[in-house]
Specification:
six-stranded mixed beta sheet; 10 helices; Barwin-like endoglucanases; 2 domains; Ribosomal Protein L25, Chain P; 25% helix; alpha+beta; six-stranded mixed beta barrel
Length: 379
Amino acid sequence: MLDVGQTHALTALDAYGKRGRMGMKKVSFDQLPGWKSDDHEQAFRAFLRSCKSLSGKNSSRPKRSMALLKRVCRKAALKGGRISQAEARQFFEAHFTPHKVVTPKSTGLLTGYYEPLLNGSRKPDDRFNIPILKRPDDLVNLVKETLRGSTNEKLTHARKTAKGLVPYFTRAEIENGALKSKGLEILYLDDPVDAFFLHVQGSGRIKLRDGSKIRIGYDGKNGYRYTSIGGVLVDKGEVSWDNLTLHSLRKWLELDRERGRQILWQNRSYIFFREHREKKLTGPLGAADIPLTSGRSLAVDAGYHPLGVPIYVTSPSLRHGSGSKSGGFKRLMIAQDVGSAIKGAVRGDIYFGSGKKAGALAGRTKHSGSFTVLLPSSE
């Protein structure tokens, strides 16, 4: 563990400081840039959503961290849904202590994700012929879903056979028919690039022929490490990191469909989905079925950060979607999701919401940033 002087994390959340070269340095709320002007009420509401999902079944939360978070959650629940900005800020300051995450690298990386809205059909035809599949019966988890981004090169899932567990089919094998006639199709899309990005985002809303909309979300993967196809194109000299956005990547893939298909197959990871039938859902579900909040939900590496913990995220260079044209991104967020590409102590994926506008914001987000974790205070 990196020696940074004051490290109080183990007295509050025993998950911290145990993985990799990461330290925690106690700071004050006055040292957090923009803290006083943040929307603490919105952060409080997002925190309450996490409180409802706290469960001993989630291995990303050690017993001590769970007990402390639950204690704070009980106090939050007493506030109910009626709380002012001042009361929300006072609540966080009274029950948490800020700890800045310190790693050998001075800053981390922030990206963005969103919930796309796509056209689809329950039945295939000449237009809608790209299947979205549900989880196969022979898919076996080798690690907890919340820790799937923390395993590096190891398989996270496998295929159960009569002879034992074997690696699951790759993206290329599945798209070439390895699971055909298994009855796994939930619905069909009309664009392979849309289908790929749906896999990357992990959730989506689908508008069907009759005008109705359904929501689908992550329900497992084939177990392979996520490979950034943007990184593949950079390595091949096709694009530069500076010019790489979701829009430029899509444009490259669509210029030559067959060439694009070969690149998509470089990411062997393949996602399986489930349909969410809950009518009251206002957004997609994150890890542990936590409803996500636009601009407040953060996907993290659960090997470092327990789900449900508040994290103050700062990035001076991230100005779009921040509410500030000059001051950058300074916002209290809640760790409510994970992702196969989210690895590291200061690696975060900001949920920007649903639809095209959110997609444009997410696609432009690739900025340095820092984390200050709010740990439950010992009382």
